[in-house]
Structure formats: C-alpha cells, structure tokens
C-alpha cells in the first residue's frame, strides 16, 4: 500500500512539521496548488482516503491532536480490505 501526502505552504515549515511526526509517506509539495485546484480542495489541511479500487472512502478537513491516530486507524482498515 502506498501512502502519499500532498501539501502546500512554506517548504521550511512543512519540513519542520513532517520531521516532528511519525509518518511513513511520500510527501508531494504542490507549489502552485494545481493538485488542490484539480480536486477542488475547500481548505487546508484536507485529507482524502482512497481505497485500493481508487474510490474516496473518507475525507477530513482540518487537523486536531487526535487526527494522526484517527488517520492511522483509517489507513489500517483500508489496508486490511481485499
């Protein structure tokens, strides 16, 4: 299973943030917001969870202290599906 994070903002701030959290993912820096525009992202941060068949199964807007744990749980469920 591949895990990607598409992000925008200051490269320095993003590096500092991702250095602090335990996350194994490919980070894609959307400098010109073209990916955000393509998917009509309404706010940042927005999280989309896509299953093995390419369907969006969950999406979240915002970030709280419990988000990382919730995200790991969603990813675990999606990984267990056939």
Summarize this structure briefly.
This protein has 82 residues and is an alpha+beta fold.
Please bin the fraction of helical residues: 25-40%
Which strand order spans the largest sheet, edge to edge or round the barrel?
Answer: 1-2
* CATH superfamily annotation: Glutaredoxin
pLDDT averaged residue by residue: 85
What is the overall silhouette? globular
Can you summarize the main beta sheet? 2 strands, parallel
Q: Which CATH class applies here?
A: Alpha Beta
Which value, in Å, is the CA radius of gyration?
A: 13 Å
H and E order? EHEHEEH
Strand content: 15-25%
Count of helical regions:
3
Whole-number count of domains: 1
Uncertain regions: pLDDT < 50 for 5+ in a row? none
Query: Do you know the CATH architecture?
Result: 3-Layer(aba) Sandwich
Oligomer: single chain
Q: How far apart, in Å, are the first and last alpha carbons? A: 12 Å
Explain what the structure shows.
- The protein has helices at residues 11-20, 34-38, 67-80; strands at residues 4-7, 26-29, 46-50, 56-61.
- The model has no long low-confidence stretch (mean pLDDT 85).
- The protein has three helices and four strands.
- β1, α1 (11-20) and β2 form a beta-alpha-beta unit.
- With 82 residues, the protein is an alpha+beta fold.
- The chain has a single domain, classed as 3-Layer(aba) Sandwich (Glutaredoxin).
